[in-house]
Structure to design on (703 residues):
């Protein structure tokens, strides 16, 4: 029945990988079922027969679909089915999109879709890597025009050893989470999170990953030669050369003048009348006047690239290694827990830090084993930041990707929950954008964390490096602005501390980078980071604030024996609820016996912890406690030291002098200081208010 069914077998990262095609999804342009260990990903690629009308870009969509059945879970939502993609699924989609997009024909306008469906997950074999390789395989054997294949690999660093495709246990211990995509000759994509890894080690890891990738690329090429379909012809949307030449002769000098400024607003004001004049002069000469906008785009691109390559000239007059004017400020918002604003030229990001209790950590419902996270970074890119007008519709894939990059850059310096028992949320608001806002958010976030008093291990800064290529010629420039990003070939973003790299994200518009290009980008971004850290950020706030904001919750933790948790919670939660209400605190208890008490009142925290310690530990003779009067008798008053632990203060020990009536000294509900004088054989606790008062007075006198 399945006469075209084929199975191809190889190994990747030391584990078997098989590709099944010709059996499922017969109507796709290309389809493959990838099995890697026990990870199974179904990849389908499709393309429309005709181009989409009225667009000036290649319409590619890439979707990484997490199915919770792949890990034996039922979705936790009310409707019990997968809904919108998780942030991790979106990041996986972007991870695959970035290396494959530049390899499609620039002049194709046919809709193209890549769908990776995760059907089974083996924790040792990352499904996003299987999906990336499966996408390359499916595109290569399909009839869709594409200049592949490529492949990708995950690389770790465990105890100083570089490991290609580490298993789950090795990833947990790794100081590096690096994903590399490449063809046989050059590197197509880099994305990394790292624990302050040096430039040299990072480059070595990239090279080692590339060695494994080359084997897979050669394997896919062999399969493509055997069963690959002929690529279909498409209607080219390339700009007519004669029209480009006419427009260039008509307005090239005017466009040069318009571009030659460091102010984006002025540049746009200068370009607007040129666009109008070009349409007025050429609309009647073209069948599709919309092509003139692409002609003008290509003309601007040509001018900017010629300036850079031939004259070493940047649009704003800077040198190749010169950073735009910088500024850093903290404590801009009085009621928030921490704030920091970072400005680089016309790029400006304000980050706000908020501290919360451990119970406010984000709960995750995904296909990996991470169930929650206590450090969260969100990034917002409103339309006004680029001078445009459009309604806000929530974060898109770009915003989620940029927020994840900043989160990854700062994660290695965030203190552990034992050191700092808080949930930390950062929100980066992009106020103005003219290139590399993600790196501005890294800098602004470091400022906000330090302003909030979060004891980060090291301050982190971020910077981008651009690239222009022409044949064998190439050159890099640091701190690219918008035009250099739009018209250049690379946006190489690197975040890190003085000790090393913490995050990388590389976007390319060409086939790939050589090792020399990567090495130079590392060197230039390190020099720029050191300048930003030492000359700008640390002059705005030299060290972490010694105290938290008065508006931040105060948190203290203790450890109790797990067997005592039930006593602290009480039947139906009555005990813990009573402590919370009486002391004005919030209490979180982990299964390991960690008790975290939080409140805006430090006194409330101390009282709650004292009560909890009294519950889990037997009262000590001679110890002083604060308790609450629960009952009055003729012979004395009963005082509750903690829920379930009550003692008697005899009338003779209620006060310093003689007491006629108990009611003359205390009333039900009063809080009193008492001292444990005796615990008899039956466990009854005898207390003395008089002895407690004498002890307090003696302590005061000794001071």
């Amino acid at each position: 029945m399945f006469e075209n069914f084929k199975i191809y077998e190889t190994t990747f990262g030391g584990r078997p990988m098989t590709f099944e095609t010709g059996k499922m999804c017969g109507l796709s342009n290309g389809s493959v079922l990838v099995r890697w260990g026990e990870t199974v990903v179904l990849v389908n690629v499709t393309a429309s027969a005709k181009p989409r009308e009225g667009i000036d870009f290649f319409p590619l969509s890439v979707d990484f679909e997490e199915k919770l059945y792949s890990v034996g879970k039922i979705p936790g939502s009310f409707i019990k089915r997968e809904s919108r993609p998780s942030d991790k699924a979106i990041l996986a989609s972007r991870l695959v999109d970035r290396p494959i997009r530049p390899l499609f024909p620039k002049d194709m306008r046919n809709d193209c879709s890549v769908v990776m469906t995760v059907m089974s997950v083996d924790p040792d074999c990352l499904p996003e890597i299987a999906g990336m390789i499966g996408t390359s395989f499916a595109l290569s054997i399909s009839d869709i025009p594409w200049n592949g294949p490529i492949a990708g690999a995950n690389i770790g660093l465990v105890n100083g050893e570089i490991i290609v495709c580490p298993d789950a246990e090795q990833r947990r211990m790794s100081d590096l989470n690096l994903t590399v995509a490449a063809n046989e000759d050059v590197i197509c994509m880099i994305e990394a999170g790292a624990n302050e890894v040096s430039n040299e080690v990072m480059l070595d890891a990239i090279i080692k990953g590339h060695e494994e990738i080359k084997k897979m690329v050669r394997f896919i090429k062999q399969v493509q030669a055997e069963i690959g379909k002929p690529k279909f012809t498409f209607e080219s949307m390339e700009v007519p050369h004669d029209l480009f030449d006419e427009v260039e002769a008509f307005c090239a000098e005017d466009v040069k003048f318009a571009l030659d400024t460091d102010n984006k607003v002025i540049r746009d004001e200068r370009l607007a009348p040129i666009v109008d004049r070009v349409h007025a002069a050429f609309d009647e000469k073209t069948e599709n006047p919309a092509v003139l906008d692409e002609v003008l785009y290509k003309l601007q691109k040509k001018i900017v690239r010629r300036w850079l390559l031939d004259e070493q000239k940047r649009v704003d007059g800077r040198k190749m290694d010169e950073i735009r004017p910088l500024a850093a400020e903290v404590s801009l918002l009085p009621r928030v827990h921490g704030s920091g604003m970072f400005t680089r030229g016309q790029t400006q990001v304000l980050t706000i830090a908020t501290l919360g209790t451990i119970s406010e950590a984000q709960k995750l419902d995904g296909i990996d084993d991470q169930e929650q996270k206590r450090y969260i970074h969100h990034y917002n890119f409103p339309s006004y930041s680029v001078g445009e007008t459009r309604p806000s519709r929530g974060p898109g894939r770009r915003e989620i990707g940029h927020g994840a990059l900043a989160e990854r850059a700062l994660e290695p310096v965030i203190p552990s929950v034992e050191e700092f028992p808080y949930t930390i949320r950062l929100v980066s608001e992009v106020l103005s954008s003219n290139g590399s806002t993600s790196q501005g958010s890294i800098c602004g976030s470091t400022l906000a964390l330090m302003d909030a008093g979060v004891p980060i291990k090291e301050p982190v800064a971020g910077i981008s490096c651009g690239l222009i290529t022409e044949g064998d010629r190439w050159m890099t420039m640091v701190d690219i602005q918008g035009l250099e990003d739009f018209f250049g070939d690379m946006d190489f973003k690197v975040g890190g501390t003085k000790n090393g790299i913490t995050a990388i994200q590389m976007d390319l518009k060409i086939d790939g980078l050589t090792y020399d290009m990567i090495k130079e980008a590392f060197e230039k971004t390190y020099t720029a980071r050191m300048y930003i850290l030492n000359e700008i950020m640390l002059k705005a706030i030299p060290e972490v604030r010694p105290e938290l904001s008065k508006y931040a919750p105060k948190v203290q933790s203790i450890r109790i024996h797990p067997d005592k948790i039930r006593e602290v919670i009480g039947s139906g939660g009555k005990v813990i609820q009573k402590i919370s209400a009486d002391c004005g605190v919030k209490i979180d208890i982990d299964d390991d016996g960690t008790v975290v008490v939080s409140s805006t009142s430090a006194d409330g925290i101390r009282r709650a912890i004292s009560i909890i310690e009294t519950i889990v530990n037997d009262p000590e003779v001679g110890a002083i406690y604060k308790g609450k009067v629960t009952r009055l008798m003729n012979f004395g008053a009963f005082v509750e030291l903690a829920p379930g632990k009550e003692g008697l203060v005899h009338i003779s020990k209620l006060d310093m002098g003689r007491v006629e009536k108990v009611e003359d000294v205390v009333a039900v509900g009063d809080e009193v200081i008492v001292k444990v004088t005796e615990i008899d054989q039956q466990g009854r606790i005898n207390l003395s208010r008089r002895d407690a008062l004498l002890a307090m007075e003696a302590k005061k006198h000794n001071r």
